[in-house]
Amino acid sequence: MTELMNKIICSSLTHYVNENQKQWSLYYKMVVFAYNTCPSSRLKVSPFYLLHGMEANQPLDNKLMSGEKETFNLTKSLKQLQIIRETIPGIIKTNNQSRKSYTIKNTKTLTSNQDRRY
């Protein structure tokens, strides 16, 4: 999982540092924040939400909601988070089964050719 996250972050950084490769550290925090706040296509929630139980406040959100005071309902948020955390293992299991069946379906059987010399 960590290798996949690192691959995604490195790939994202290449869009910003193609010209000057020494400036990657200027964009690193923004890219990691974008990764952590982007909902997963499988789980439908962001890693930030899974860790903290609420979505991250982004700078634009602060500007748009400067006059509105939205109350945070801890009990409701914890119930939603618990439901999501209970459904995630099932989603992962289903996804793994579909990947396994896809792999089995698309794997060609290899025949041994004993006469062939390498």
Folded structure, characterized:
With 118 residues, the protein is an all-alpha fold. The chain has five helices and no strands. The mean pLDDT is 77. One of its GO terms (molecular function) is nucleic acid binding.
Number of helical segments? 5
What profile does the largest beta sheet have?
none
Helix content: 55-70%
The backbone outline, from C-alpha atoms, is flat
Topology readout:
Blueprint lengths: L1 H13 L9 H14 L9 H6 L6 H6 L9 H33 L12
InterPro entries: RNaseH-like_sf (IPR012337), RNaseH_sf (IPR036397)
GO molecular function, one term: nucleic acid binding
Defining key terms:
118 residues; mainly alpha; 61% helix; 0% strand
Produce a short descriptive summary.
InterPro entries: RNaseH-like_sf, RNaseH_sf. With 118 residues, this protein is mostly helical. It contains five helices and no strands.
